Amino acid sequence: MLAAVQEEKAIQRGVLPVLRRATLVQTFGQKNHVCLREGSITIPPYAPPHKIRAHIVPPETPRSIFVYFRGLFYDTANDPEGGYYARGARASVWENFKNNALFDISTEHPPTYYEDMQRAIFCLCPLGWAPWSPRLVEAVVFGCIPVIIADDIVLPFADAIPWEEIAVFVPEDDVLRLDTILTSIPMDEILRKQRLLANPSMKQAMLFPQPAEPRDAFHQVLNGLARKLPHPKDVFLKPGQKVLNWTEGAQDDLKPW
């Protein structure tokens, strides 16, 4: 027994320093969360690229739905009174806008779900038990302006995805004003966001296709990791150079992140 305890302590002495220098790669983060360390890489949750690409509608398809959402409003199994799930934000959406003609919202998940998102202008992306879901990935891929209702969300790949430019952020306390907020957005701003979302690089950066493709989410992770390796800022791949030596940086760069 003593030998086992000593072995465990030895393992901890060896592992913990490594973990302190490790980079945590995780799906959409949450501000001030115990698992979200400074220097972590936030990635999008997985959405099946082959399934998404099988449901692409013609680009000329009109966006005839103003606001779209399919999902739970209450998690009665885990929160019978409906006060804790999504901090009440989803319940407020349902109670206040279920009869609003501008809102196409339901708990049903139709087989045309992907097609419907491509016919919508705004796609609601409220928090659930966590601040994120694959719905945000789907909205970006399908060119539907994400309406992010999650005060403490940390979004992925901020250097590749201009979230402030392509999305609408609604504070959880302002859910009751959701219709006013969205209808007051000028048309030229909506069109600008749609043009940005139409950029193929936006969609590519959110997906993990198999095999990997240039500028996809896997490569965004590699880019994030590469930035953390010890190297001077002027180390870049030169014209004609195929291999970059990321280890040629100064020793001073070998400090914890």
Automatic annotation (TrEMBL):
Belongs to the glycosyltransferase 47 family. Keywords: Glycosyltransferase, Golgi apparatus, Signal-anchor, Transferase, Transmembrane. It is found in: Golgi apparatus membrane. Pfam families: Exostosin_GT47. Signal peptide: none annotated. It is a single-pass type II membrane protein. It comes from the Eukaryota. One of its GO terms (molecular function) is glycosyltransferase activity. This is Exostosin GT47 domain-containing protein. Residues 21-185 form the Exostosin GT47 domain. InterPro entries: Exostosin (IPR004263), Exostosin_GT47 (IPR040911). One of its GO terms (cellular component) is Golgi membrane.
